[in-house]
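Dear colleague,

Following up on Tuesday's group meeting, I ran the structure prediction for the two-component complex that the binding team flagged. I've pasted the input sequences exactly as they went in, so you can double-check that nothing got truncated or mislabelled along the way. The C-alpha cells for the whole assembly follow below. Feel free to forward this to whoever is handling the docking comparison.

Inputs:
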Amino acid sequence: MNAALLPLVVMVPLISAALLAAVPGPRWLRGVLLLAPNLGALAAGVLLIQATADGSVYAHGIALWQDGIAIPFVVDVFSALMVTTTALLTVTCSAFAIATGEDRARFFGSLVLVLSAGVYGALLTGDLFNLFVFIEVMLLPSYGLLAMAGALRSLRGGRIYVTVNLLTSTIFLAGVALVYGVAGTVHLGELIGAARESPLVAAAMAVVLLALSIKAAVVPVHGWLARTYPATSPAVTALFSGLHTKVAIYAIYRLYALLFEGDATYLWIGLVAFTVTMAIGVLGAVGENTTRSILVFHMISQIGYILLGVALFTPLGLMAGIFYLIHHMIVKASLFLSTGAIENAYGTSRLDRLGGIARREPILALVFMGAALSLAGLPPFSGFVAKLTLVSATFEAGQWIVAAVAVAVSLITLMSMLKIWGGPFWGTEPDSDGRSDREVRSGSAPGGVSAPARPTVQPKVRPAVLFPALVLTTATLCIGLGAEVLLDLSAQAASGLLDPAAYLEAVTNR
Amino acid sequence: MTLAITIGALVAGAVFLMLQRGMVRIVLGFVLLGHGVNLLLMSAGGTSRRDQPLLSFGSPENAADPLPQAFVLTAIVIAFSITIYMLTLAATGSDDDTEDAS
C-alpha cells in the first residue's frame, strides 16, 4: 500500500466541500458531490482494513518533511475501522438529509463534508497538536450546522454547545502545551510510554484526557450533551452522535494506550467514572418525554460501556471496547435516523403526541425495533456480542461490581426503550386535537418538505427517508450474525494498542 | 515567574467572567482564557531564547523554538473565529443576557 495516499482521505472531502460551496449546480450534482467523497472514504476504509488487518501500520509525513515537522498520518487497524464506520455514517446521514430536503440549505453539504474531513484527520493523525487542529476542523462546521438546524429553539442549545466546546478545546490546548513543555515533543511516536516514566507528563496528559472526557460526555461532565443534541435536526443529531463523541473516545483509547502504556495506577479512576456514567446516563433517560432526548441519554450511558474497555486495559477488555464502539456508532445513528423519520413525517418527537406507528409503518417499526434491541443487547444483533464480550472481560478482570452494574443498566435500557415502543409505536393514536395543536417545529427542514401535514391527511414516512436507517440496522444485524470478522479485527486493534512496537516502527522508520 | 503569574491572573479573570450570566461576559472570559493558554504554549518552548526562530538568521543557542509559535498562530486563528461566532450568537435572538434586576 502506498502510504502517501493517506492524506487523500482528508483532502478529497475538503476539495468537494469547496466545490459544493462555489458551484451552483442542479440538485443531483450537489447530491453527488456530497455523497461521493464519503463513499470514496468508505471504499478507502475497507481497503485500509484489508491492508492493516495483519497488524501492519502505515505512516506518512505530509510533503516528506522530516519527522516532528511534517503533519504525520498514521493508520493501523483501529483507525481504519473507525474511518470505515465514520464514512458509512456520513453517507447514510447525508442520504437522510437529502431525502428530507435538509441539504437544500445553503452550505449544508459543505459543512458536512468539512466535518467528515476533520473526523478523518483526527482519526489518522499521529501528533497531539494536529489532533487538536483536526478536532477544531470537525467542531467549527458543527457550530454552523447547529445554528442552521433551527433559529430560536436551538439558540440556547447552540450557545451551550459552542461555549462548552470552546472551553474544552482550550483546556485541551493547555494540556498539549504542558505536554510540550515537559516532554519536549507532541509527536505520538516519540511520546510512547512517556507518561508511564515521568509523573510530570502523566499530569500534563491528565489535562488532555480531562478535555477529551468532556468531549466524550463522561459523567460528571456530560450535561452539555443532553441539552444540546436534541436542539438540532434529526440528521444532524445522528451525524454528531456518530462522530463527535466517538472521536474523543478514539483519542482516549489511543492516547492512554500509547502514552501510559496501560499504566495500572490510574485505571481505577476510569473504572469508577465510567461505571457511574453508565448508571447516570440511563437514569437520566427515565424522565425524558421526547424520543430524541431519551436516545441522547442512552448515548451517555453507552459511552460508559465503551470506555470500560480502556479502563480494564486487558486484551479482552480492549477488544470488547473497540467492538462496542463500532457497534454503537452504527446502532445509535440508526435509532436517531428512524426516529428522525417519524419526526420528519409527523412533525414531533414527543411521546404523548404519537401513537400507532407500528400499525401504519411496519417497516419503520421493524427497523427501529432491530436497532433498539441491538442497543439493549439482545441476540442476534451486534449489541449482544458487544455486551457479552464486555461483561466477560469485566468478569475476567475480577470487577464484579462493574459487571453487575453493566447488566443492570442494560436491563434499564431495555425498559426505557419499551417506553418509546409502547408510546409512539404500539400505543393508541392520539385524537386529532392532540395532533393539530402540536408545537410548531422551529427545527424543521428549511426546504419545507417536513412541514406538518394537515390533520386530514395521514402522514406517511417515505421509503427514501427510511432507507438510511434500514441500511444501518441491516449492518448491525450483519455484524451480530457475522461477529467473528469484526471481533478478529477488534482483537487485532487491541493487540496494536497493547503493544505499540509496530506503531513506533512505522512512525519513525520512513 | 512573571509569565506564570500573568497566566494565572488571566485564567483567574477568565474563570470569574465565565461564571457571570451574560453571554458577552462569557465571550470576554474566553478571550482572556485564550490569551492565558497562548502564553502557556509560548512558555512551553522556553522563553530564555528569544532570537528569530530561523536558523539562517541567527545562532542556534539563541534561536527561539518555532514549534510553539506555529501552535500559537493556529490557536489564535481558531480562537478568533470562534469568538466572532460567539459574539454573533450573543447578538442574535432572545435576551437571556439581561441581568436580573436586583
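The first strand of chain A starts at residue 58 and ends at 61.

Cheers,
M.
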